[in-house]
Amino acid sequence: MQIFLDTANLEEIRVAARWGILSGVTTNPTLLARERGAGFEETIKEIAGLVDGPISAETVSEDADGMVAEGVEYAGWHSNVIVKAPSTPAGLEAVSRLREKGIRCNVTLVFNANQALFAALAGAFVVSPFLGRLDDISHDGMDLIREIAAVFEMNPEIETRILAASIRHPRHVVESALAGAHIATCPFNVLEQSMAHPLTDRGIRSFLADWESRKA
Ligand code: E4P
Prior knowledge:
11 helices; about 20% strand; binds erythose-4-phosphate
């Protein structure tokens, strides 16, 4: 499974890229709005300069013509840009039209397996089921990943990747991998939490103390 970073914060991307684990980045209008003063196009281009992998940039139109126009514009910014369109009928039409132009799309805000299947049939490069937001309303987000993975597996002509989104904690990452997701897009704090373990810290302290003691 690949790890993407779910952020528009350039410093977070720089740090995670240095770890050598980053295969791509997802952004959305909320994440971009958090980075006050940074322009959309400039931010996406800067991200593309930091990470050599898919960078999702989200459309904000509600009709297919508008999404297609935005998607064509975003795709012109860098060859790694993936156009994000919502899981709506207009989004499906936009994905289908963008695909005909050779532009890859990420269908976002997926909350059931039919949405994922239809997105795949329309030609989505990736689909983004939102785990955390389902968990928030007492559904099991992981069940959705399992269901989508099973449907895609039974239909080998589908090449669409499953991108686990709305990740809230480290268990979401490993469970997504086990459930069949190809990618997990994580907030930076989840990457940090994933690497934190008290026994690792304790082990380092005791190894260093023992190393120092040989000088005494
Ligand atoms: C995915 O591409 C989205 O940007 C993201 O995962 C949304 O997560 P949230 O539910 O934490 O806002």
